[in-house]
Amino acid sequence: MEMKVVGKWLGQRHFQADGPSGNTIYMDAKKEDGGTGQGNRPMELLLMGVVGCTGIDIAMIMEKMRVPLQGLEIEAVGERREEYPQAFTRIHLTYHMTGDVPPAKAWRAIRLSEQKYCSAIGSLKAEVIPHLVLNGQEVPPLDVVVDGQPD
User: Fold this and answer.
1) What is the pLDDT of residues 122-144, one digit of tens each?
2) Interatomic CA distance for residues 95 and 118, integer angstroms
3) How far apart are CA 78 and CA 110, in angstroms?
4) I need a surface site. Which of 117, 130, 135, 147 has the fewest CB within 10 A?
């Protein structure tokens, strides 16, 4: 399976990227690196990709489980190396869910996304640490079974 994205330099540190979806995004460096603030920074887009990927998974998994998810917001906080390349070493993902969602099913959906379905997470070397806030209450990780293996 192949995916093609084309990036075009627009001057200074500003780039346009177009992908197979037909949508365009713009990237730029921070001002101290010669950017002009005309787009997201590439590492922001990487975290946004993780949030979008796992969010789509969670919504689909909950739908298949017939769990009435009312709201989902995912916060990603990435920790990066000080030296170059300044890759992410750890990413905390906090899943804020609302609705009549059993905690075990919420954790199962999170684990399935992070361990099996989310291609963005699977493409990173960073350690991913999930957190769940269900209807405003933090829920500690539960042991759930994913693919016949205990978590």
Assistant:
1) 999 999 999 999 999 999 998 76
2) 15
3) 18
4) 147
User: How many other C-beta atoms are found inside a 10 Å radius of the C-beta of residue 138?
Assistant: 9
CA 44, CA 27: separation in Å to the nearest integer?
Answer: 10
pLDDT for residue 147: 56
Interval 90-105 mean pLDDT: 97
Give the torsion sign (CA, 12, 16, 48, 69).
Answer: positive
What pTM value is reported for the model? 0.89
| 10 close to 16: Cβ distance less than 8 angstroms | yes
Two structure tokens written together for 21: 């979806």
Residues sharing a CB contact under 8 Å with residue 126, sequence separation 6 or more, in sequence order:
78, 87, 88, 89, 90, 91
Q: What is the pLDDT, as a whole number, of residue 120? A: 97
* Helix/strand/coil for 49: helix
- Residue 121: which H helix or E strand, with range? helix 119-122
User: Which of 145, 133, 4 has the alpha carbon at shortest distance from 71?
Assistant: 133
